[in-house]
Design goal:
CATH class: Mainly Alpha
Distance between the termini: 46 Å
Structural class: mainly alpha
Largest sheet: 2 strands, antiparallel
Radius of gyration: 17 Å
Number of helices: 5
Shape: globular
Strand order of the largest sheet: 1-2
CATH topology: Four Helix Bundle (Hemerythrin (Met), subunit A)
Helix content: 55-70%
Number of strands: 2
CATH superfamily: dinb family like domain
CATH architecture: Up-down Bundle
Amino acid sequence: MKKTVEYRHQVLSPKQLLESWQGHRNLTRRVIEAFPEHAFFEFSIGGMRPFAEMVKELLAIAEPGLREIVTGKTEVFDEHRDFGSTKARFLQFWDEATEKINGLWEKMEAVDFQKEFTSFGQFPGTVQSALFYFIENEIHHRGQGYVYLRSLGIAPPLFYER
């Protein structure tokens, strides 16, 4: 019978993971900027939400979720929070969240990425799986934003320029 050996090789350092995440956040920010003001709040296709509603979800997940990981205090998932009625206001919240993420990340040295963790008191997994969800969810919604921009005749930012 063959024995399974678990290897604990690190593929990415925490710093590299943060840099990747912030690269994605930078690209998503540029997608937000590319939207005309009215389309950001109103345009949708096939019953999908306007991009502003998707960005509300991203803002409700990333920094609050990381804060929950760092502090151990369960956060309330609130994607219906008022982020303002202008694209500029959303970008301000985005930039503030980005800075808070950087600060929280610095406090994560004691966090075990494999530790069992339940995001927002509802979604069980590990710290690592929560972080990957935050990133992958953003990529998913950014892809929807790309479809919207192309439908509006606007070339989205190049996806590989993070």
